Amino acid sequence: MTFKRLSIFFAISVFLLYLGLVLSLFYFYKGSLFMEALLSERILYSIKISLIAATVATVLSIVIALPAAYALSRFDFKGKQLIDTILEFPMIVSPAALGAMLLIFFNTPIGMWIQDNTISFVFTAYGIILAQFVTTVGIATRLIKAAMDEIPQRYEDVARSLGASPMEAFLTVTLPLSKRGVIAGGILTWAKAIGEFGATITIAGSMAMKTETLPVAIFMRLATADIEGTVVLIMILISIALTILYGVRLLARKQDA
Amino acid sequence: MTFKRLSIFFAISVFLLYLGLVLSLFYFYKGSLFMEALLSERILYSIKISLIAATVATVLSIVIALPAAYALSRFDFKGKQLIDTILEFPMIVSPAALGAMLLIFFNTPIGMWIQDNTISFVFTAYGIILAQFVTTVGIATRLIKAAMDEIPQRYEDVARSLGASPMEAFLTVTLPLSKRGVIAGGILTWAKAIGEFGATITIAGSMAMKTETLPVAIFMRLATADIEGTVVLIMILISIALTILYGVRLLARKQDA
Amino acid sequence: AEELQLFSGAAFKKPMDEIVSLYEKKTGTRVYAAYGSVKTVMSQAILTKQGDVFVVPSSDIMDKVVKKGVVQRETIKSFAYAVPVIVVHKGNPKNIKGLKDLLRDDVRFAMANPENVYIGMLAAEIFDRSLSPGEISKLQKKVVTYADDVPKLLSYLILNQVDAILGFDFMKGWNPDKTEIVKLKPDEIVRISAGQTGVITYSKNRERAKEFIDFLLSTQGQNIFKKYGYQASEKEAFNFAGKKLEIGGEPEFSGNWIKQ
Amino acid sequence: MLEVKNISVRVGNFTLKNVSLTIKDNECHVIIGPTGSGKTLLLESIIGFRRPLKGEILLDGKRIDNLSVEKRGFSYVPQDLALFPHLSVRDNIYYGLKIKGSKGGMDQNIADEIIEAVGIRHLINRSIKGLSGGEKQRVALVRAIAPGYRYLLLDEPLSALHEGLKHELWFLIKELQQRYGLTILMITHDIEEAFFLGDTISILIDGKLHQTGRKSDSLIPKSLEVAKFFGIRNLFETELIHTDTDTFTVYCEELNTKLSVRKDYGFLNSLTDHRLIAGIRSEDVMILREDLIRKDQDNMLTGSIKHVFYKGSYYIVTILVDNSTRLIDVELSDYAFRKLNISPGQRVYISLRSERMFLIPSAQT
Amino acid sequence: MLEVKNISVRVGNFTLKNVSLTIKDNECHVIIGPTGSGKTLLLESIIGFRRPLKGEILLDGKRIDNLSVEKRGFSYVPQDLALFPHLSVRDNIYYGLKIKGSKGGMDQNIADEIIEAVGIRHLINRSIKGLSGGEKQRVALVRAIAPGYRYLLLDEPLSALHEGLKHELWFLIKELQQRYGLTILMITHDIEEAFFLGDTISILIDGKLHQTGRKSDSLIPKSLEVAKFFGIRNLFETELIHTDTDTFTVYCEELNTKLSVRKDYGFLNSLTDHRLIAGIRSEDVMILREDLIRKDQDNMLTGSIKHVFYKGSYYIVTILVDNSTRLIDVELSDYAFRKLNISPGQRVYISLRSERMFLIPSAQT
Ligand SMILES: Nc1ncnc2c1ncn2[C@@H]1O[C@H](COP(=O)(O)OP(=O)(O)OP(=O)(O)O)[C@@H](O)[C@H]1O
Ligand SMILES: Nc1ncnc2c1ncn2[C@@H]1O[C@H](COP(=O)(O)OP(=O)(O)OP(=O)(O)O)[C@@H](O)[C@H]1O
Ligand SMILES: [Mg+2]
Ligand SMILES: [Mg+2]
């Protein structure tokens, strides 16, 4: 009983830590600003582009992370250790530095070729998605790999004995079995994507109604010492994002039952 | 066979993406600067404080995340859903905003009391650890919870039937069984901590030989558009961090076998 | 020993480090300098209610912190003057001679965000004054992005994402190998920028803070800024610009620059 | 003494209804029953993994149903074994000892002895992964016994072992039980095992305890469900027509014959109904050679051999009774089979021995 | 026809050595052996989960050991079942059908029929979690059979079922085998099951195939290991002293007697050594009533009853042979036990029937 209480105590501590931070926002909160901000066309645009970019980046990340994680979890191939090590790379490099690296990359011949011949990323909304994708795909792969590592190979083997091809076995057995891990990974990816700022602003710039995501908007307020405005925007970001994540989680839980 | 190849192809794509970014650094690389930087006392101090702070913050995060994750994974209690939802909070809020929130918090009466009567965080090395801890403890909890969710309750039950108290069952069964997940979580936490910049600089400042971590030093180079200097420091950060992570992973793998 | 806490925009880090160590040697007072982006140092000064000396790269920011009561207006001093110029790649490969060249289709052009970056505001003001309405709207359409701070603006140029930026003359000092300056015509420039410093209201050591500011403004200090490519005095700045101009102040430009 | 009083447990749509058991110290109580009848559920409720809807569990008279698992003091071999996958075989086995050791000294010798006896000494350094089914089961058994608890709850602990080893372990369990004064509650679906190891036996069918009692009484089914569970196919609907001091006489329409049933074997306490089912195990039916038939042989029938199934060491022969569509199963030892020279189609005499027949209430009641 | 030619498989310290098997179409081949002898390993190698060190696997003459699992066309019931925990019972069962369905129509009726026959219709909407051990096993069986593969590999598929149900499934498997022309390779540790279902039987001990052949030949052990595996404890070291047209005569020092062994039962092809082990199953030993002893009874011994074990439907009696320390096991049916009125200490005559004795090479060779 005591251990149970102790562990719950720790869980609640983590909660209180974050709650405390959120609540202290109210110290600078001005109700009037909140509605004003919510109704401004510019903020609405920021909300829209934030949601779209984060969602697209998350989908891209997960779609690529799924097979990549599967390969890392199941197969042995040359360079696997190397790949496994580099996945944390976007975590280690702070977002601003990562943004700079992206710019540097687009300054290399390959980067320039990509800019000129495929999609132009620098200073466009695609840049937002790219920045978020680059920051998240590594972690997404890591998280999904961790989940797949826990699924015994055995189920796939048995599926194969029932006639499933490797691909079918993956889609019908391993994937659904690691569903919880994939969803958790997706949620984290999305959260990271929607909160991504440093790389975004570096590569996509900060033009209002063009590449101004919510975190960029928060930065703009902060940069003009508008603490009240900052607080309101942070609150908008937190409430939208947490509500969506709560909804996704609820949905996933319902489907499980 | 084709599916195997396809999935490995994706894994290698992720690798190439990051490798490409790292390699493009060489486009601006000046060998002389590298040695110069590595031998400078200031950079050595940055490396040292980065490693120490990240490690301390990781240990703190994991120590708190372990019981918290366990509680979230095993018990039902009031407010659990709420806690579960807020864990992504530090991801959603960009680091700079998080740093601002921390400052706001220390501006409230409770925060001021803490500053005055316990440890002083603002503009001290403790602030670095605090910033890194706050950014990571939520994700650490989430990752460890995800790992523990995959460990069947059954093993604990059986351990209890062999005389283990709930705490002993946790320590001897659930914890070692989720070891891989905990290590993966610890690695991600450490990576995030060592790369943390926005919150760190906001709360701890950037005093040379005091609170200037490697990412802060990188930022300082970026702040004068010193691309060559930035590149060298990024390389130092990446090589140190990836080497350490590789070592940790190797160690964990050896212990497993 | 006595201690001073300094908040400074990161752009001044290199010269400021030198000044600090000289000052420390001279007086024995220990100076803790916290550098950061403008938003960082501002939130730090506003929210921590600590520190002695505040240093920012432009007057608009100083105005804001004064309004917040963080810095005493009467203690504010200007230093390290900066003149708006066009910055281009070394050797000026696109052969840019003046503002009108920025309108050319083959010239990729970026400026700083006029909403919160002083050089962005200056640029908008300059364009509003010197270009025709048609040219203005053409420029507004072709500007590839607004940079959110000065170093990023320069990075875009150095990393060859743009051919020209409207920046400051000291940028050449930051990166002499890759950049070149194209001066504006004297009457195109409305005002110049200056770094500003002041004593923080919460300072517990005003005397020392004032002493440090005085040292910063001394010839010894000015020379250091000169070394890093800044115009050390008003006079030099006006010489460079070609005429006497307002220092700081609120630039005037149309709202179109912010929201198109 | 372990007493289970009237517990009911519910999971999903399944209910364990009002089960009561008493297991005396040093006794081995075996629960048998079809798959899905709730055996595991019952054991898990006793050990504390599940909370019963109602009822009490008492150990030496004290209620333990509110105690947490580790305080109840039962050792457990789960049906799925649940060996700790992160520990070696050794660490699995010594897990309980170590936990206990940290609370008060225990005797390591028991463990060493059992490791030897169960034949897993060579596995001791292996990891759980890669153990064969039977190896796992033995490790789980040793893990449960090693800590030296007095109460042992075993859920089909020998189901993956081959005959020879299983028999050895039967003897081992008996010996350990006596030596260390163990009280054992065991589930099995192996009736032979139940009768070898059990002092008392309970039969659980569909969540209900159908009969419970001393081993010697358990062989005689007391309900149709139990008879079917025992695999007894020689069941006949009959009507009671006469009661003697030591014999019931019933009439079976299907076989068109009277059958006598000796009271001392298949004794029914109260005959509330005249409709009864008479039954006999296939091994109790005798096939008689014509030259050995005595007039006094009871419940004699004639018929012809229909099928012959060979079962390794014995035969099952089905016999179609004359003037009826009814088949009767007879188990014959290899020896008897050869002696009788049995082949399909052959006509034979059989006796449903009255001293081995039993009566149970008809299903309709 | 499935042929396994000389395959060797290695895991950890365990090796499966040079195993060869031939399973004809429509045949049921059963592998029996002690726990940990490599049965599962062999099956997993055939199905393709493990790569043999050497050897070939052929299906209808074509090599399949290089094909991937799903192309080999074997259905499999693993020992640990490995039911898909995220699918319902229904989706588990139809898994193979659906996969196949996407490649070409299949007959759903087989599935429905087997679901009914195996008695899991009521579980169909349940999730795998919460199924009892026996329920899980049946679901796994149906999942493997449903897709309609011709080859069925079963790893102890009935070990968690109670007697009655197990016997029903024996009949079901036989019927399915005939109806759909299935070829079955099955592992069991239940010797009765092996002899009921198997057309041919292999005995695998310690990674080596000790004997393989038609069911009728498999009862007679051809090595000491197999004899021990069968649980035969009546094994005597002897020396060959005489060979007749139809009988061997051996001398047993331990029992201090000559024993005759009929050639047609325990036939040894080549007698390379004079040191032999003579053995007899406990059910083949006869206890004789004094009044029934005939002079021509062979291998007669006298002794006294030492232990009596009741095993539910039969008894095991151990007899201490006079002038020796040797115990002989005798299995007696309930009927015989009562007829003979056996009790410990009683003196009896026993016959080690010569037509049931077998000879195997001595361990020393
Ligand atoms: N969580 C659950 N949800 C629904 N039904 C359940 C659940 N757990 C168990 N049951 C059902 O309860 C019944 C009893 O299960 P139990 O495991 O006790 O059977 P058992 O007698 O041990 O059978 P076996 O001999 O096959 O192991 C089964 O029909 C099973 O399907
Ligand atoms: N990965 C492994 N590492 C080491 N030994 C292994 C491994 N896998 C199997 N073995 C060993 O190989 C032997 C054969 O195992 P297998 O599972 O084939 O036995 P089995 O005959 O099926 O036994 P059972 O009847 O108990 O299921 C066992 O002794 C087992 O411990
Ligand atoms: Mg069970
Ligand atoms: Mg096996």
Task: Give a short synopsis of this structure.
The complex is a heteropentamer, with 2 copies of chain A (257 residues), 1 copy of chain C (260 residues) and 2 copies of chain D (365 residues). Chain C is of the alpha/beta class and 260 residues long.
What do these coordinates show?
The complex is a heteropentamer, with two copies of chain A (257 residues), one copy of chain C (260 residues) and two copies of chain D (365 residues). Chain A is built from 14 helices and no strands. Chain A is mainly α. The radius of gyration of chain A is 21 Å and the shape is globular. The two termini of chain A are 28 Å apart. Chain C has 260 residues and is α/β, with parallel strands linked by helices. In chain C, strands 1, 2, 3, 4, 10 and 11 form a six-stranded mixed β-sheet that branches. In chain C, strands 7-6-8-5-9 form a five-stranded mixed β-sheet. The mean pLDDT of chain C is 91. Chain D is built from ten helices and 20 strands. Chain D has helices at residues 39-47, 69-72, 89-101, 108-118, 133-145, 163-180, 191-197, 215-218, 224-229, 334-340; strands at residues 2-11, 14-23, 28-32, 54-59, 62-63, 74-77, 151-155, 183-187, 200-205, 208-214, 235-243, 247-252, 257-262, 275-279, 285-288, 300-310, 314-321, 327-333, 347-352, 358-361. In chain D, strands 6-7-8-3-9-10 form a six-stranded mixed β-sheet, sandwiched between helices. A five-stranded antiparallel β-sheet of chain D has the order 13-12-11-14-20, with no helix packed on it. In chain D, helix 4 (108-118) runs antiparallel to helix 5. The longest helix of chain D has 18 residues, at 163-180. The model of chain D has no long low-confidence stretch (mean pLDDT 88). At the A-B interface, helix 1, helix 3, helix 4, helix 5 and helix 6 of A face helix 1, helix 3, helix 4, helix 5 and helix 6 of B. Bound molecules: adenosine-5'-triphosphate (ATP) (2 copies) and magnesium ion (MG) (2 copies). One magnesium ion binds next to helix 1 of chain E. Residues 39-40, 79, 155 of chain E line the site of one magnesium ion (MG).
